[in-house]
Amino acid sequence: MSAGGIKPARPFQQAARVTLANPQMRRNLRHATTTIREKRLRAVAELPDWEALRDEGAALKDHVMAHLADALLDLEAAVQARGGRVHWARDAAEARGIVADIAAAHGAREVIKVKSISTDEIELNAALAERGIHAIETDLAELIVQLAEDRPSHILVPAIHRNRAEIRDLFRRKLGAELLTDEPKQLAEAARLYLREKFLTTRVAVSGANFAVAESGTVCVVESEGNGRMCVTMPGVLVSVMGIEKVLPTWQDMAVFLRLLPRSSTAERMNPYTSFWSGVTPGDGPQEFHLVLLDNGRTDVLADEVGRQTLRCIRCSACLNVCPVYERVGGHAYGSVYPGPIGAILTPQLLHLEDRNANTLPWASSLCGACYDACPVKINIPEVLLYLRGKITEEKPLSAEAIAFKTAAWVMSEPHRFEGAIKLARSGQGPLVKNGAIHALPGMLGGWTEARDLPAFPPQTFREWWRGRPAPQPRETDGQAQTSEGELLAPQRGDRGPA
Amino acid sequence: MSGEARLEILTRINRIGAREQEPLERRPVRPSTRPRAQIVEQFAEYAAEYRANVRRLAAAEVPGALRDLLLARGSERVAVPQDLPAGWLPGGFAVTRDEPGVTDLTAVQTVVTGAALAVAETGTVVLDHGPGQGRRALTLVPDHHVCVLREDQVVDNVPEAVARLRGSVLSGRPLTWISGPSATSDIELSRVEGVHGPRVLDILLVREG
Ligand code: SF4
């Protein structure tokens, strides 16, 4: 069973130390993020009005947030008018209970699932297991993660940290698949055979939702493999769990997001399959449909004027693919189903800034701004990161480390000042450097180095270097474990760092 | 059961009173000014890039082209929606007119349908499961999907497609947007086609006039 949830078991800095010691994960991730990053630029360049489209997406999402109650009530009425049932869940436990009750009412021993981060957020699979119901993940990557009793490492390609040989062994062991080679084609075929029977015989399916249209009660699932189509079409009962922020007011609004999402996420003009359905269609697909509207901290995020923009997120994962910190530490370090830059702002907010481990996540960033540039709905992630850092250090008891965090928040609150401060530090760092690392900083910044060594400031600032750097080469130069978490905040010393 | 939760969530939202500064202005959907030929050409090109097999032909050539496709794949069991235009089908094949609850879709090798429209900008075919398209499972379970499309069904871009589909959606119809055959890149980012949906998508694009 893949572990889920949004509560990190450890502070980010500790978790990152573990994942940094996994060279395969780093190699695979670098390959994935580099590939998708380059493809995305091409896909985006094809649409002449990309910037206008981003503005439109952001404005639409802000509009929904300003009228969220109306939109949700319209959605509810439209789904009900089409024969669907709507449930409201204040928190994860309530949502899990709703889904489990529906499955149990149908006597289900198994349910099939299509990849959905919101069901991972509420740790649905474990809750179903407690009631004797086995949840079968049908997305190939999710199936791999589930069979390996692992956690997803990326929103879009959750099993990217696994190699084909490992997957072959896993399928042999867990599915009894007869596999002659580890060709991806054969592996996919093994999954097809195993799942086909499940699609045709399982009575209850659970999905997430990428979008839902208030005026028509239409739910949308975007996917590639056809497992989504199978889940929303073949079983008699369908339960879809969606965060309340996924609602859009009108059908035409879908046009904006059907252009923004595939290009930002898989870097395609369009993903292979997108399914839309409104309630129940007589004679076609599930004849019982439930929509679960999930709050689980979202109304708190909505209440915060700066944090609110986080709810625009359409889970495309573009911010992960451009993030230098993510590329190094991988998804597991974030300890939540929401990794990368979006996870660094969403996870702590969903937990009301009350979770000590999640509260370290806003520091999992170099503030280079690449995530903001890539985000199709223009979430100013660096702004929210800084804001959260400020709130966390203000509201929580201040350790020496937290005081340094606070200083860092002030220093970094504005790019020029940040770059100026770094330059100052660079010019004055001489006496403090031993073996290429800074061991103690004078004055206000001292608290930071109590807990970690900083690498020496590179001759260029991170921002200068990241902006101007060439596309990473496939060669692997840093397979060794890195132990200084300061590494995360600056490019590698030595090889491909600033020259 | 969830009446209390509903009230509480709505109350939380309303307490916030987040109101927007400026009213939203949606960009109107303007009809495309590109020449038709260019739009159709782009659709054919982009659909092919997604590994759909696109063949452009005259209406009279549809039965012959279908025959070739069925023979080439050795398809003996063909299913079609109840209301598929009879003139499309070649003679000499056992064709099942789909009946939900009766047709065993797992035994069907090829399914032939029409479409609601297609999108040039993305190479996408859209089914609204209206006339000539059948229920959703029909184009999902069989391995081979042949989609017959008229050139005048191809629209330029996504906003136009969405606008045209408004009536279908408001009348409660489901939609399936299809861009090439089923595919995954989950294993080391290598693309594999035909995971759960049809492994092969053939598009017969019928010339206007
Ligand atoms: S924050 Fe923006 S870039 Fe990141 S996943 Fe969400 S929508 Fe995509």
UniProtKB/TrEMBL annotation, chain A:
Question: Which top-level group of life is the source organism from?
Answer: Bacteria
Q: Which residue intervals define the domain LUD in the entry? A: 75-293
Keywords assigned by UniProt, alphabetized: 4Fe-4S, Electron transport, Iron, Iron-sulfur, Metal-binding, Plasmid, Repeat, Transport
- What are the boundaries of the signal sequence? none
Start and end residues of each Lactate utilization protein B C-terminal domain = 399-469
Segments of this protein annotated with the region Disordered: 466-499
Where is the 4Fe-4S ferredoxin-type domain positioned along the sequence?
Answer: 311-379
PROSITE patterns membership? 4FE4S_FER_1
| Pfam families listed in its UniProt record | Fer4_8, LUD_dom, LutB_C
Matches recorded under InterPro entries: 4Fe4S_Fe-S-bd (IPR017896), 4Fe4S_Fe_S_CS (IPR017900), FTHF_cligase-like_sf (IPR024185), Helical_ferredxn (IPR009051), LUD_dom (IPR003741), LutB/LldF (IPR004452), LutB_C (IPR024569), NagB/RpiA_transferase-like (IPR037171)
Q: By its UniProt entry, which NCBIfam families does this protein fall under? A: LutB/LldF family L-lactate oxidation iron-sulfur protein
- What name appears for this protein in its UniProt entry? Iron-sulfur cluster-binding protein
UniProtKB/TrEMBL annotation, chain B:
Pfam family, any one: LUD_dom
Give all residue intervals belonging to the LUD domain.
106-206
Q: Which SUPFAM superfamilies match?
A: NagB/RpiA/CoA transferase-like
Where does the source fall among the domains of life? Bacteria
Alphabetical UniProt keywords: Plasmid
Please verify whether the record's keywords include Ion transport. no
Protein name per its UniProtKB record = Lactate utilization protein C
